[in-house]
Amino acid sequence: MADAQLPYAQIGVACSLNSHTSQSSHEILPSDVIYDPPIADPKWPKFSVGYQKHFKNTYGKRIFDLSFGENVLLIRYKTDGWAYELGLQAGLFGLMDVDSSPTRLINSDYFVGGGLSLVYDRKWQNLFQFSHLSSHLGDEFLISRPDYINKRVNLSYEAFKWFTAYKFNSFRPYVGFGYLIHRDPSTLKPFSFEGGIDYISEKSFLFDTTRYVCGIHTHFWSQNNFRPSFNIRTGLQTEDAVWRGRHMQFLIEYSQGKSRHGQFYAKKEHYVGLRVAFSN
What we know:
This protein is mainly beta and 280 residues long. It is built from 3 helices and 13 strands, in the order H-E-E-E-E-E-E-H-H-E-E-E-E-E-E-E.
């Protein structure tokens, strides 16, 4: 009798979540994503701006870090507790030295990829991704550091990656495995491994629109003998229904280890910073 008091739509949702019936549906151009973006991965496509104070002068002491990126979702299909999603990703990642006058472009990385996401019971998340990345040194950086003209690497590669994650309560640990299918220079070693954990508080505050978030991300690449790059970000996340599945994050970040910025992959970096990010 208790179920009879529920609206029909709520009964359908409850049955779907508890028994995974064979009911199926599809959606064209959905607004949200079923594979949650990692909070602390510096190379995940999203819109963000950041300021970094570097302890090592690898390419500057005070760095402006920006990215323009998006996850374009094409189609989603749901059946028997599973959800399948096909989408595209694209991003531009740039570094600028704000100590120089005028501000000097250091490096820019261009990323584009396609992905198939598979999620079961809204908890076990998988993403199969095929992508291309090319890296370019800034003209102003080369003028100021002519020794890099001979060191410059025409870094470009295509990669296949598999990410898998599991959500329980506020936590989401994940791992990823990658292989460079085509690479320039051809001497680059192909294997990569990454992993981390995200935390998003279940309880919200400040008008029920704000949550505490924290993410830890570590990346290993065989080219660097699997020496890690380590990133941690923590702060606040604000949500608004008008943003259609997207949210704003205000973060403090810390990074140490091998650089993730194209041309400088063999260099070490160490910094603290502030960041504002907007993404799915």
